[in-house]
Write a structure and sequence with these properties.
The protein is α/β, with parallel strands linked by helices. The chain is built from 14 helices and 11 strands. 41% of the residues lie in helices and 15% in strands.
């Protein structure tokens, strides 16, 4: 007899973070995480729309279950939050498959080519002066990180006068020296001509990558910028399916692809995106702002795809309640000398703390 799914639930932790648990008739429970925006919408999608398409079916048939969810939710028509909900469940299904087979997910993806992944410190703050940001960057370099990303410019604006990107990068470079990677994310806040102007200044400062100089949907603008600059252009955090990544590669002409496994729906779609990147010779640097299950899932993917994941990967250094106040993981992840170890236990290789889950679900 095959294993069957008996229940699918979405827990909203600390009113902000949607986590998924998939239960089976053999007692194996898979865990996953969804993108953190609009958690109430995600919970409704998981429990009311996707769960009925899964109960009674074999969780280890991950491709079939992915197709079941896509059909049930009209995902290719609806997109957006639907993919985020599917992502959390897909991660949980791969966790179940790994546990059932006694193998870490990286092995299921083809093999654990490395046992640790180099991380860069990703700052989400936008309220610091250039000197304050530089001091912060230097403090993380002292902790062992070999890269630092700043989020500059003014989101939602275009070419805003309050943008201090060049002044900030100049101070950071002076503080950390020439051997540390600096990454700059402006969240699509520039016109094409201003992005080229800023990009040339960033090139002179030795910036490693220039992220989303234009919004992801302006493929023509991204292509114009990528063609004009030598600095690598990165994008992809705001799209979901292999078809959108195909267009980003062919029409946006970006240099570095940035899928996020809690948006681009889980390991099943990530494997298709990986195949595209291999075919077109595009490296992947994952977008990763959620430092719990999302980070663990990314570690497994990066471990199995060392050939197209050559650079350091994103790690959110801002305070996160479910990591820093009450750890939802029984054994929290720890960045050591700029690296995170890839869990080697079955499935994701991590366990949630039931007591923490209860407290975080109720507060």
């Amino acid at each position: 007899m095959t294993m069957k799914i008996t229940n699918v639930e979405c827990l909203i932790l600390d009113r902000s973070f949607p986590f998924v648990r998939v239960h089976t008739d053999e007692g194996i429970v898979g865990i996953g995480e969804c993108f953190r925006r609009q958690p109430g919408v995600i919970k409704t999608l998981v429990e009311d729309l996707l769960k009925p398409a899964l109960v009674g079916k074999d969780p280890t048939d991950t491709t079939l279950r992915f197709d079941d969810m896509a059909r049930a939710a009209s995902a290719y028509e609806m997109g957006g939050a639907v993919w985020c909900a599917i992502a959390g469940i897909d991660i949980a299904l791969w966790d179940i498959k790994g546990k059932a087979l006694g193998q870490p997910i990286a092995k299921l993806l083809g093999g654990m080519a490395r046992d640790k992944i180099r991380m860069y410190a990703s700052s989400m703050r936008r309220d610091m002066t250039p000197l304050q940001e530089a001091r912060r960057a230097a403090s993380f370099v002292e902790q062992g990180y070999s890269g630092y990303k700043l989020h500059s410019a003014v989101p939602g604006a275009m070419d805003d006068g309050a943008d201090y990107t060049i002044a900030t990068v100049s101070e950071v470079r002076a503080a950390v020296g020439d051997d540390i990677d600096i990454l700059v994310d402006v969240n699509g806040a520039y016109s094409v001509h201003h992005a080229m102007e800023i990009g040339k200044a960033l090139e002179a400062l030795g910036v490693f990558h220039f992220e989303e100089p234009r919004p992801h949907h302006d493929l023509e603008g991204l292509a114009t910028i990528a063609d004009a600059l030598d600095i690598p252009i990165a994008s992809g955090e705001m799209i979901y399916t292999q078809y959108e990544y195909r267009d980003l590669i062919l029409n946006g002409k970006v240099d570095i692809i940035q899928p996020d496994i809690v948006k681009a729906p889980g390991f099943t779609e990530f494997e298709k995106i990986a195949a595209l990147c291999k075919a077109f010779g595009k490296p992947i640097t994952v977008h990763n702002t959620q430092p719990i299950i999302s980070t663990v899932a990314h570690l497994h993917f990066c471990a199995a795809h060392a050939d197209i994941v050559p650079y350091s990967q994103e790690y959110n250094i801002e305070p996160i309640s479910i990591r820093d106040e009450i750890s939802v993981l029984k054994e929290p992840l720890e960045v050591i000398d700029g690296y995170l170890a890839v869990p080697t236990g079955p499935g994701l290789g991590v366990e949630l703390d039931d007591k923490a889950l209860k407290v975080l679900s109720e507060r």
